């Protein structure tokens, strides 16, 4: 698996779309065995369902309702000649998005708005990252028909635009998103052009971004950052967050400090600021009397319940022992300025400031750590 959280999210999302495609294929085979006709492919309007006239049912006479009691509410009964037209697809139908016109711009719009798109399941900050990449892609090839794109055109835009100037990581990101769009178009929109381009890209090879030139955070770095944050800046929250992230690399930065999302986000929260709320960060209530932290963690395509023994993590234990019992309520990582959880951008800026002061090299990043042997099926073959 890549160390880049955005690319990891793309890989996980593509894997989910592949699972849907497998389930759809299984349903098609079952429908063929049962001789059930399935409507497939684009169509302007779903076929209307004609509802036969309901037979009259005599009203019960044994227990007539009192005149003062209103009749129980019930759906209106259609007239004998009524024709009801479905406004939503049946579960087994594949509906083309209304705004998909066969271009990459339409495909992007469909991916961002379709009710079956897994984009809706992404974290808010990841969604914003996707939108930035798609805005760029739309500006470059938005008017181009998906059916007109060839392997040669993919290679040209990769070399001349996306990875130009040695920006392999950027090229990797854009190619991964293009491949994700094609998978979505193939599996959700049932678009032949998307299926064709997805197959073409599956046979292409692109350089894989490497970690050359960057260093992994060491325990010496973590200790220096922790001490500097607390002693020089008075930012105990960053010292604790650094300790947790170093000892427990399964916890991403957003798992540790949380994130601020619009009030419309389905996640529940009791911490609200203006039109945003704080979600998904560590809370003291998740730590029991034995200093065991329990929470769900995203691993690959799944969320798993995991336990983290904070007592066995020396750097973490040092920082927690500095926190009075009276302050061990609510979010674990709270900004000293606002007395609210950090925003992601501000935390990263302050972390870099602390790291610079601590003498940590610029090429040492506070990125998620992952086991070196991890990978996903969506990363196999296309990047090398």
From TrEMBL:
<feature type="compositionally biased region" description="Pro residues">
    <location>
        <begin position="49"/>
        <end position="78"/>
    </location>
</feature>
<feature type="region of interest" description="Disordered">
    <location>
        <begin position="362"/>
        <end position="384"/>
    </location>
</feature>
<feature type="compositionally biased region" description="Basic and acidic residues">
    <location>
        <begin position="362"/>
        <end position="374"/>
    </location>
</feature>
<feature type="region of interest" description="Disordered">
    <location>
        <begin position="49"/>
        <end position="85"/>
    </location>
</feature>
<dbReference type="InterPro" id="IPR011010">
    <property type="entry name" value="DNA_brk_join_enz"/>
</dbReference>
<dbReference type="GO" id="GO:0003677">
    <property type="term" value="F:DNA binding"/>
</dbReference>
<protein>
    <submittedName>
        <fullName>Uncharacterized protein</fullName>
    </submittedName>
</protein>
């Amino acid at each position: 698996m890549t160390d880049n959280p955005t690319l990891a999210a793309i890989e996980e999302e593509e894997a989910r779309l592949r699972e849907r495609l497998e389930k759809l294929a299984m349903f098609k085979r079952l429908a063929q065995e049962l001789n059930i006709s399935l409507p497939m492919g684009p169509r302007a309007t779903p076929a209307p369902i004609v509802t036969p006239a309901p037979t009259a049912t005599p009203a019960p006479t044994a227990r007539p309702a009192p005149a003062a009691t209103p009749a129980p509410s019930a759906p209106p009964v259609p007239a004998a000649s009524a024709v009801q037209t479905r406004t939503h697809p049946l579960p087994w139908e594949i509906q083309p998005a209304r705004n998909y016109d066969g271009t990459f711009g339409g495909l992007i719009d469909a991916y961002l708005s379709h009710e079956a798109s897994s984009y809706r399941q992404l974290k808010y900050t990841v969604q914003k990252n996707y939108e930035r990449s798609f805005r760029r892609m739309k500006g470059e090839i938005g008017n181009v028909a998906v059916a007109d794109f060839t392997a040669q055109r993919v290679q040209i835009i990769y070399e001349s635009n996306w990875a130009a100037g040695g920006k392999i990581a950027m090229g990797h990101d854009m190619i991964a998103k293009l491949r994700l769009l094609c998978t979505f178009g193939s599996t959700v929109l049932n678009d032949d052009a998307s299926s064709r381009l997805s197959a073409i890209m599956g046979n292409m090879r692109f350089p894989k971004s490497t970690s050359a030139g960057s260093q992994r955070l060491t325990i010496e770095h973590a200790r220096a950052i922790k001490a500097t944050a607390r002693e020089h800046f008075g930012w105990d929250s960053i010292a604790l967050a650094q300790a947790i992230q170093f000892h427990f690399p399964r916890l991403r930065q957003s798992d540790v400090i949380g994130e601020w999302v619009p009030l419309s986000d389905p996640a529940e929260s009791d911490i609200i600021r203006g039109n945003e709320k704080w979600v998904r960060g560590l809370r003291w209530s998740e730590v029991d009397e034995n200093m065991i932290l329990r929470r769900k963690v995203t691993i690959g395509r799944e969320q798993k319940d995991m336990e983290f023994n904070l007592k066995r993590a020396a750097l973490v234990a040092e920082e927690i022992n500095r926190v009075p019992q009276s302050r061990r309520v609510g979010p674990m990582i709270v900004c000293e300025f606002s007395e609210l959880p950090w925003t992601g951008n501000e935390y990263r800026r302050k972390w870099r400031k602390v790291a610079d002061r601590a003498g940590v090299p610029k090429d040492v990043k506070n990125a998620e750590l992952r086991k070196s042997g991890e990978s996903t099926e969506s990363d196999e073959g296309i990047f090398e």
